[in-house]
Specification:
The longest helix is centred in the last third of the chain and has 24 residues. Helix 3 runs parallel beside helix 7 and helix 3 crosses helix 9. With 161 residues, this protein is mostly helical.
């Protein structure tokens, strides 16, 4: 098996399909503007990107998470959040919901899964959390299919942010 290589550059996707990129960015912005805790949204995006093996999105959301001040321990352990014991009940509910909506081929979305997320998120929050999950899943499918090269974290950019 040959090493992974970029099939289509992200910049090419941007230039070729600007309306698709704009639509995905708008969906992501809707969740951000709904007032959901940005750190929870980033944890969800990290977990979904791990599940979907999207290096591009994983690196982007690691960079964003660091800028937001998410503790390194949470970034290190998000893949094993079930066992980590460092995530709040609300974070765990969001991560469980993210896994449920990402792994739809494995099973249907049960009433129990929905009830679990609703114990920690009201109806509006659940809608926008689900929108954020759907959006990162869409980005992951593009990033993984085209093997967008992950952006390298630039320490000077982090210091300026």
């Amino acid at each position: 098996m040959s090493p992974a290589h970029t099939r289509i550059a992200y910049e090419t996707f941007q230039k070729t399909a600007p309306s698709a990129q704009a639509a995905l960015l708008a969906m992501g912005k809707a969740a951000d503007e709904a007032g959901l805790d940005k750190t929870i949204i980033e944890l969800v995006k990290l977990r979904v990107s791990q599940i979907n093996n999207c290096a591009f999105c994983l690196q982007i959301h690691l960079n964003v998470s660091r800028r937001l001040g998410l503790p390194q321990e949470k970034l290190d352990l998000v893949a094993t959040w079930h066992e980590a014991g460092i995530f709040s009940e609300r974070e765990c509910a969001a991560l469980a919901w993210a896994e449920t909506l990402t792994r739809l081929s494995d099973k249907t979305v049960s009433d129990e899964a929905y009830d679990a997320v609703r114990r920690h998120f009201n109806e509006s929050e659940t809608i926008f959390l689900s929108t954020a999950i759907a959006t990162i899943n869409a980005w992951n499918r593009l990033g993984a299919a085209f093997r967008f090269a992950p952006p390298i974290l630039k320490k000077t950019a982090d210091k300026a942010a």
